[in-house]
Design goal:
8-stranded antiparallel sheet; rod-shaped; 5 helices; single chain
Length: 384
Amino acid sequence: MKIKRNMAALVIAGCIFASGIPVYADSQVADADGADGNLYAYSIEDEQTGESDSPDDYTFDFEDKIEDSGKNYTLNHVEYSVISAYEEKYGDAEIPATEVVKEDKIKEKDGYKPEKDVIEKNGMKYRYKSSVFSESKDSVEKPVDLQKYIDSDYITGSLDDVTKPVTISYEYEGKNYILSYDHTDKIFEGWKSGYSIQGTIYDYDAPTIIVGSAEIEPTEFTTLSAANLQSYVAAQGYDTDTYRFNTASFTGEPYINADNKTCRDYIISAEVYVKQYRMYYTLHATEKETLYTAENTYELSADDVQNLKNLKGTYTVKATAYYDEAEQKKTEKTLPVAAKVAIAFGVIVGLVLIAALILYLVKGGRKGTDYRSRRDSKRDYKNL
């Protein structure tokens, strides 16, 4: 029992001492690799932006000696790197002001429009400007179905009186084709106005003249009825089934002709029964259609071009200062006052508890000894 109680006391005391001691760790500064391949204890970076690509035109205020986390460092050297704003954004890529995009198998150059008015490339937007065409090696067969017609004049005869060419020339989409006669359609048949015949009244100074079945004064010629005009014209040899005469009028004043006769000219308006025909010419064939390749030029806006120029003229200079660790003077490490107080308090408390435990164990042991002595005495008394 004593051994167990003593062991417990020692364990408790050990725990008390252990809980009263704080633990400290030193802070570390990450090492830095220089461009010369050496490892340096400390480094500081700074950068500036300007229009010069020479580090000599920039001022970086690095201290020769610095202190950080209780350590001292001495400047070894400063390294510089220069990069333009253009390189920082686009790297080594050269951004052109124009881009050319090819499009194949173009059938028509006239009225051509590219598939896209705006393209994106290199992170920039290019707008369509123009196209240049070249003939492609490829071609396609396309059907050629052409038709053209010719209208005849208005005629009083039949279709046989119409002149029909066997072939005609026809220009289509800049090419000349030969079309052959196909067929004819009648497109009009009937009376058509706008016709007239002209004539002269001789002996205009005579008291009367005979016009058809009527005897009239010469001045009354323009007042003849249509029937009398028809009879008069028929006597002149016109076919009244084809011609229909309506009115007459004088075209001038009376005059004396070479035969010393008084004459006056007239005109009679008429309708004519006519026909008109339409002659059709056709071509049904196939031909090779030339295809084209379009080289479409797209360009950046003037603002984008200027922005790229500005980026190329702007530089970022980065300076890195490398430091060596300076030799440190050896000094004894002292604990803070608060730590010292905590340790002292822990020691005192621990000692008090240990003393109390020892007294308790000692007192408990005596009671056990006294009890056993009385028992042994009683046993001895019985044996007497």
